[in-house]
Design goal:
It contains 15 helices and 17 strands. By secondary structure, it is of the alpha/beta class. It has two domains: 141 residues, Rossmann fold, CATH 3.40.50.720; 291 residues, Dihydrodipicolinate Reductase, domain 2 (2-Layer Sandwich), CATH 3.30.360. The chain has a nine-stranded mixed β-sheet, sandwiched between helices. β1, α1 and β2 form a beta-alpha-beta unit. The radius of gyration is 24 Å and the shape is globular. The protein binds 6-O-phosphono-beta-D-glucopyranose. The site of 6-O-phosphono-beta-D-glucopyranose has 3 residues, from loops.
Length: 491
């Protein structure tokens, strides 16, 4: 059990959706599990003119429902009320420097770790940081946590990073990518770097291709206006999918130290093969859902969702064929795919190994790629690792059939699995940067996706429609076929 340092956690944007759905529920669970120091305090900041009591009622009404568990949290439960006792509320205009003096009065004499969590629009990051500096509360023991999206392209991310860097040093800046907080993503590191089995095979000589899918059944969920200006490439690929790709492709770091891990990730991002004009057409697919049915329920198309422009060309689906130009991976396709309103909610990584060079036994499906060994790392909804191979069917003759060696984590371990935000917030409180994104990583990721952003903005060919509840546009299957591969649903 790690020791819990005392802290003051200041949450900007404390009445917003993210605070209610993720941050306060995660802090509550950490409190319930006795992972927060008893003296740890939470200062919630927003411009709404609430009293503390009003705000606590608001939190009980809006955040308690998002605490995951078998039974809903009862706001009269003493554990919940003891959590609320940690919270103070401060109404202030985030733009105006004067209000920050009140925050300074609450913080200046603090000797404990300070976390400033900016759960606001990134447009406010520069002002908030400047105001923290002008009221001198950017103290040495302070850390600032930044939520994505950090900008909408390389230039705007530079501007935000420069503004924050004027106030905080890089080792005080915690850029959150909640995918890195997922237990299963860390398990991927354990799989690779705590076992000797995989390393000799983890390279171009043995691996035919890698597929990374994050599929959602949800649509834009009341975030239409934000999403329409963002799209799946910025919302999911530039950050979550590229971080997963780094976890699969990086070289073993020299240690688990934050910078050692991040050095290796940035090398992968910098080795991504830039898109050529031909790749932009043939190795990238963007789609947008039209009405259909998900889980038997009819759902509207993207253009019918509230807040979406009538002729919007924003992509809700992306499939890419990427490559990494280094000795380990040259020529190995990395297929990335994400989309909203797809057939299932799933996040998985499939490593497909090269087929055997010569079959001496009759093969069940003929000598095709579908016969290859596959390592399937399922991140959600359930966590598992499966190794698909061929085994002899019992009985006469020598008939081989596919079987899976299956490791289901929920059966292997009975400990509670922490949610991504809980893990990351505790890391920010403890000052552990390993699972946060460094500036150079983030900028390398923007640099790689930018030609695609630009191409899609300026290119007249429209987004490809796909029916809600499907696996995306047919162009995504065609992209795979051109590379001699298939998505799992097509197998
Ligand atoms: C967020 C995106 O970063 O990740 C959302 O902004 C998306 O659009 C979400 O729905 C997916 O996260 P998870 O953990 O539910 O897979």
């Amino acid at each position: 059990m790690q020791t819990q340092p005392p802290f003051v956690f200041t949450l900007f944007g404390a009445t917003g959706d993210l605070s209610m759905r993720k941050i306060l529920p995660a802090l509550f669970v950490a409190h319930r599990e006795a992972k927060l120091h008893p003296d740890g305090r939470i200062i919630c900041v927003s411009k709404q003119a609430f009293t503390r009591d009003d705000y606590l009622d608001w939190v009980s009404q809006n955040a308690a429902q998002f605490v995951k568990g078998t039974t809903p949290v009862d706001p009269d439960d003493p554990v919940w009320t003891s959590f609320l006792a940690r919270i103070d509320y401060l109404a202030l205009d985030l733009i105006e420097p004067t209000g920050y003096l009140r925050l300074a009065e609450m913080l200046l004499d603090c000797k404990v770790g300070l976390v400033f969590y900016l759960a606001t629009s990134p447009l406010l990051f520069e002002r908030i940081c400047a105001n923290l500096a002008s009221s001198t509360i950017n103290l040495a023991q302070a850390r600032v946590v930044l939520e994505k999206p950090l900008g909408h392209d390389l230039l705007s991310s530079h501007a935000i990073n420069d503004a924050v860097a004027r106030v905080f040093s890089e080792d005080q800046i915690y850029r959150i990518d909640h995918y890195l907080g997922k237990e299963s993503v860390q398990n991927l590191m354990a799989l690779r770097f705590a076992n000797s089995l995989f390393e000799p095979l983890w390279r171009r000589e043995s691996i035919a291709h890698v597929q990374l899918t994050i599929a959602e059944q949800l649509g834009v969920e009341g975030r239409g206006e934000f999403y329409d200006g963002t799209g799946a490439l910025r919302d999911m690929v530039q950050n979550h999918l590229l971080q997963l790709l780094c976890m699969v492709a990086m070289e073993p770091p020299i240690s688990f130290d934050a910078n050692a891990v991040r050095d290796e990730k940035v090398r992968v991002l910098r080795s991504l093969k830039p898109f050529t004009a031909e790749d932009l057409e043939l190795r990238a697919v963007r789609g947008q859902y039209v009405s259909g049915a998900v889980n038997g329920q009819s759902v509207p198309g993207y253009l019918q969702e509230p807040g979406i422009g009538a002729k919007s060309q924003t992509e809700t689906f992306v499939a890419l064929h990427a490559e990494i130009n280094n000795w380990r991976w040259a020529g190995v396709p990395f297929f990335l795919r994400t989309g909203k309103r797809l057939a299932q909610r799933t996040a998985e990584i499939i490593i497909t190994f090269k087929p055997i060079p010569h079959a001496i036994l009759p093969m069940p499906f003929g000598p095709s790629g579908a016969m290859s060994n596959r390592l399937v790392i399922r991140l959600q909804p359930d966590e598992s690792i499966q190794l698909h191979c061929l085994a002899k069917q019992p009985g006469d003759g020598m008939i081989v059939q596919p079987v899976a060696l299956d490791l289901a984590f929920d059966q292997a371990f009975d400990q509670r699995r922490a949610e991504a935000y809980e893990r990351l917030l505790l890391d920010a409180i403890r000052g552990n940067l390993s699972l946060f994104v460094r500036r150079d990583e983030q900028e390398a990721a923007w640099k790689w996706v930018e030609p695609l952003l630009h191409h899609w903005q300026t290119n007249a060919s429209p987004v490809k429609p796909y029916m809600a509840g499907s696996w995306g546009p047919t162009a995504s299957f065609a992209m795979m076929a051109r590379a001699g591969a298939q998505w799992p649903e097509d197998r």
